[in-house]
Structures are given as structure tokens and as C-alpha cells.
Design a protein that fits this description.
alpha/beta; Rossmann fold; two-stranded antiparallel sheet; 11 helices; elongated; RNA nuclease activity; NYN
């Protein structure tokens, strides 16, 4: 059997976000289990490509691996004042930052894994999460009524005088949305930089140097398309794993296969020996 040259590239931010959708809690609760799950994902892809049975006792899957790449960004290390909690937030010492740093250390211990780390920068101040923004912006619809007390001196409760029952309920809902706003509903405007660029550079470099014949990319981002087109023109097989997330018809045009492999059940064994 010929030896394949396979590279698996994992978009770490996307991978972490999709894990709750495809695996049980026990496969993602600690940095160790997340690192093991990333390795299992890679192994399943390689075994599928080389025609080896999943769970084979004498697996030689790593012999067919050029490199396993994990892309993410170093945790933001700035300090900011939370507008609702009224306290300083030191992002460098947060639970999320500690988790990511520990995860990176675990991945460094895995055979043939390489880390590619970008940066996180602050682009804007605190903002309300998207799921609440549209609802709270409806405040604008009620500005004329909110101004009514300034114009009405009759002594009649303005809500009774001006609002129908359905309007009163809608306004009450909006008021409750504002009252229930808590510190978890606002986030600092942070953005990853350098991650997509590193993915594109590695795909291009491996392709032009002839280091691989197959690339598996774990992401749902369309930014990879130019690099994928280059790889395919040079004869590299390009597989996309969106972790069961649907993709647009346009993206299908620029890949050679759509394969999601990471889905667990109660009988799955997480920790495997390093073959």
C-alpha cells in the first residue's frame, strides 16, 4: 500500500464552537479531553482516506500524516471595565484564557501536531450580544410614547390613555428585556487576527512544495476558497470538514469532498494509545 501524504488543518475557534453540537460533555470539558478529541478527529479522517478500519489495533495512520495543524489565537491579555458588573476585567487571568493556554500545551504534546497562533485585538468597546440587540433596538419604536409624559398634563396615566392592550404587552416585554440585562449579555469587541492568513499560507506552501497530496480542512469559513482553488489546480485533493454544519452550494464548487467524522456515542472510547 502506498504511503499517503495527508495534512489535517483545524480552525481552532470554529472547532471549539462546534464541539457542543457534535460530542458529549465528557469529550470537551477539560483541555486534555479537547486535545484528545482533536486528535481523534484527525485519526478518523486519515483512516478513512487510507482505507483502514476505525479502531484498528495496529493502526499506522501517523505514517501517512505530513502534519496536523491547529490554528487559534493567543488569549487577549488586556484589561477593561465591565459596564454592567462595574468591575475591572483582567482577560489574561480569565477562565477562558487559562483553558486555551492549557489546551495549547496539551496539543504541543501530541505527535505531529503543530500550533499556528495569531493574536486577538480590541476593535471596539463593550457591546450587547447580537441575540438581544435587535430586541432592545425596538426602543426606538416607542420614543413618541416615552416622550408623552412631557406633553400630557391631564393627570391620566399615559400608558392607559395611549396604548392598546397588545402595545402595552409589547412595551412591558421591552422593559423586562432591559431589566434582565446582565453582565453576560455584553461582550468586548475583540477580533482574531492572523489565523485565516496562516491557514492560507500553509495550504499554499504545502501545495507548491509538493509536501502533501491531500488536505483536510476543519472549518466552516469561506475565506479558505482562494487557497483551496490553488491546491486543487496543483492536483491536491481538498476535503472540507464543517463538523456537520451545512455549507452553501457555492462552497461545494471549490472542494473535492465534504466529510464530517466527529460524532460520538456512549460506547466511544476517548483515550487511545499513541500509535
Amino acid at each position: 500500500m502506498r504511503t499517503r501524504r495527508i495534512a489535517v488543518l483545524i480552525d481552532g475557534g470554529y472547532f471549539i464552537k462546534r464541539l457542543p453540537k457534535v460530542v458529549e460533555d465528557r469529550f470537551r470539558t477539560t483541555p486534555e479531553t479537547v486535545a484528545d478529541t482533536a486528535r481523534i478527529l484527525c485519526k478518523k479522517h486519515v483512516q478513512r482516506l487510507i482505507g483502514e478500519a476505525l479502531g484498528a489495533r495496529q493502526s499506522r495512520w501517523l505514517d501517512h500524516v505530513y502534519r496536523l495543524f491547529y490554528y487559534d489565537a493567543l488569549p487577549y491579555d488586556g484589561v477593561s471595565h465591565h459596564p454592567i458588573a462595574n468591575r475591572r476585567v483582567q482577560f489574561a487571568t480569565s477562565d477562558q484564557a487559562a483553558f486555551r493556554k492549557a489546551l495549547f500545551q496539551e496539543l504541543r504534546k501530541k505527535r505531529k501536531f503543530a500550533l499556528r497562533l495569531g493574536q486577538v485585538t480590541k476593535e471596539s468597546d463593550w457591546r450587547i450580544r447580537e441575540r438581544l440587540t435587535k430586541r432592545l433596538l425596538k426602543t426606538r419604536d416607542w420614543l413618541p410614547l416615552l416622550e408623552a409624559p412631557l406633553r400630557d398634563d391631564s393627570g391620566t396615566p399615559w400608558t392607559d390613555a395611549l396604548l392598546a392592550e397588545d402595545q402595552r404587552r409589547a412595551l412591558q416585554t421591552l422593559i423586562e428585556d432591559w431589566r434582565s440585562l446582565d453582565e453576560g449579555d455584553v461582550i468586548l469587541g475583540l477580533r482574531q487576527k492572523g489565523v485565516d492568513m496562516r491557514i492560507g499560507v500553509d495550504i499554499t506552501s504545502m501545495t507548491l512544495k509538493g509536501q502533501v497530496d491531500t488536505i483536510v480542512l476543519v472549518t466552516g469559513d469561506a475565506d479558505f476558497v482562494p487557497a483551496a482553488k490553488l491546491a486543487r489546480r496543483e492536483g491536491v485533493e481538498f476535503i472540507l470538514d464543517p463538523m456537520w454544519q451545512s455549507i452553501s452550494d457555492e462552497l461545494h464548487e471549490h472542494i473535492d469532498g465534504l466529510v464530517s467524522v466527529l460524532r460520538t456515542d456512549p460506547t466511544t472510547t476517548l483515550r487511545e494509545t499513541e500509535d
